[in-house]
Amino acid sequence: MNTNIQDLKITSDQLLLDAIKVIEGNRIQIVFVVDQNDVLVGLLTNGDVRRFLLNGGQTSGLVEQCMNRDFRCLSPDADRESLLKLFDLGFNAVPLVDAEGRLIDYATPDLLPTTKEGPILVRSRAPVRIGFSGGGTDLTYYFVENKGVVLNTSIALYAHATLIPSNGPEISIYSHDIDRVEHYQSLRELLDHPDKGLISSVVSVIRPTYGFELYVHSDFPVGSGLGGSSAVAVSVVAAFNEMRHDSWSAYDMAELAFHAERLCFGIAGGWQDHYASAFGGFNLIELDGVRNLVNPIRLEPQTCNELEECLILCHTGISHNSGAIHKQQQASVNNSAGKEYLSGLGDLCGRMHKHLLRQELDDFGRCLHEAWMLKKQLSKSISGTSLDETYTSAIAAGALGGKILGAGGGGFFLFYVPTRQRAAVSRLLQDKGCRIYPFRLDREGVTSWKRKLI
Questions:
Q1: Which CATH class is domain 5-107?
Q2: Domain ranges in the chain?
Q3: Whether this model's pTM surpasses 0.85
Q4: How many whole angstroms separate alpha carbon 2 and alpha carbon 4?
């Protein structure tokens, strides 16, 4: 343990004998010489004393006669690197002085000044997904009796969350995508509020024991069909998870987000979105009344790269309400024809999975067309005149297959297009008013990290 700095100070007009007593009484064998204002003016080590005495000096002399005026010092907030460099050069103690030169403390190789833990912020991001087949079989009312299977992948468009914990109980939530701000004096006030948004619904499920500011924004438009609200929920869960000592698993985070969005906030929908955001990458998700399983698919890098080149993602310019569409579809699922359609989607997932593993990508693209045709039979709300016209035109221009992502009714189209036809299909889609979204596949899933609050 370092000796208290006050016990190592001496003034230049004191006797050398007084300095020797201080030097001999501490393990670093050094005293710091200061003036009447506590400004550091010199150092004195046992080596300095020996040299002074060998040259004829007397212990009755003054400290200023033998002190070392050529010394190195640093500020109290000096970084570790600067200190380590001096210690590596042979310094056994480094004085720490303020801007006026006053001695504040000192550092030694075995005990650097403690860096106090300051305020932090937490960031997280969760990817959205593109579903290839099986959407609809991930709805609880279907898979608890019939089993469901979904094939999807996450893409590098993200919901971002920034969490700034505070010492007080106040809670502030800023949702930039919908221009919504919520302020609460305490968690209790948030829990009792009758008009909670999606993010405050997530907070009500997690119930943190501290106040905070929370900022959320996304890379994609609202009502996209990419599972955006689920990605938002997962990103918020992940930000709070970063603060925990016993971290939640990817399953835990997905299921907490499902709880908040589907049950507390009341948006109807399936389970695949939350799992895709939490796990990331390509997944074959199996769902039943006992246990849901996310099976990661390991693809060759060239397969992923080629898919990125052949897939076109475009926004139709039409927003949709996925919850309302899911409720309409439920009536269709309850009849035998609807169950047959969804069963067909499940079988198609298995075929598409095999095509991916065997790098049969053109066949995979043609299966997208089958998935779209099957899904359209569930409900008239999935497509419409303008969407059908856009789809038909894209196929005529050279796309092998495609589908509306999510529940349907608007949002994003996904098309599989061979290289020679890509430019023509892209121009046609833009002429139809669609906006092309360049994208990359995501392989990480939700991520989170801390940093110092500046």
A1: alpha beta
A2: 5-107, 121-436
A3: no
A4: 6
